[in-house]
Design a protein that fits this description.
mainly alpha, Growth Hormone, Chain: A, 2 domains, 20 helices, globular, cell membrane, transmembrane
Length: 413
Amino acid sequence: MVNRYELARGLLADEEISKAGLLTLACTGTLGTLAGSAISPALPHIRHVFEANPHGELLSKMVGVGHAIVVVLIAPFAGVIADRFRPRSVLILGLVVYAIGGVSGFWLPEVEEILVGRAVLGIGLALVSVAALALIGGISNEGSRNKILGQQVAVASSSGLLVLAVGAAVDLYWRAAFLVYGFSGVLILFAWRCLPYSARPSATRRRARNWAGGSLPARYCGLYRHLAPTMAIGVGQLVFFLIPIHLPFLIQDAYGHSALATGLIMAAQVPAVAVTALFFPYLMARLSRPMVVAAAFCSFGFGFAFLSVSSGKPGFMLGMLFTGIAMGVLIPAVNGWVLAEVSDSGRVISSAYVIVALFLGQFLSPFMSNPLVHLVGVQRVYSLTCVFCLSIAVVFMFLGRNGRRRSAGVGNK
């Protein structure tokens, strides 16, 4: 017999999601990766086409990063919308907005108009990211939830290989890069057919409070408990983006490697992220959440250590493998940690916090690193980043040990 309180909390959602629905949720992770990487091969062409525009160079760069700014600004409101309505409906709306904003660059004539289209894409990405994470949070079994979180990261990283095909198409016609965002239209069909209807989180919260006697608004539950993992994902993205921002210039300008060698070195990260993310549930079954995050930052530290002293392709590729392992662990670990700590009816707002931290780290990375790079050089910055990441790993190791001691104390009582 179905317990009505369990139903009110939304804990039966995983029973309703088919394999096709879970695959759809996993594929939504590709949209964040494609938002920035798919357009990157076309940015030099955009700058060349609009070089007559007095602000053409700046605006062409904003085409590549403008969506991240919009996601940071819109994600909190996306959380409120998804909290008021069904996450499934918000996800489908976000996919529609993402497709329209992304593909619009194929026909918009001016760079300013393309930039507006990228802002629309950012709005859609914010809606999709928050709603998808909230739907994954509705899976009651933590093992199943960790599995889909790992698969989401693996699929997202694998989509980075699509950039190679986009680069070839861009050589023929630079606007072809915008057609990649039509993939969101395919996901609309699967989301419509395969994702289950669920109760509105706000309505779920009211029923849960009435039946369980709760008094504290669930949207604020776990605000402090998920502060550590939310900060971890922001810092992780900040240090991770030191690589695509600065490493290609270091490889080519300082050490004279070819563009092909640079591409191969950067691509070494993709299989590391994908494979690690797929094995992430097994890691979570053996370590506490803070210890998993600590392991991710240790891997970051080892990766930046290799990048800081290397001059040849093997050393750079080894550094990329370690940083790929770190990202394959960190993103699903933080998402799983937040979804496990927060109350079930407050997971939508918590998902918005995570998305804001993730894209804020991406956006702040170049602004915080460029002054240091000009002052001491790229590899010195990587050395400092290595020490910084290992220090964060020590902090999370302490949190993990402290948590185990508290659990042991409760058990002894």
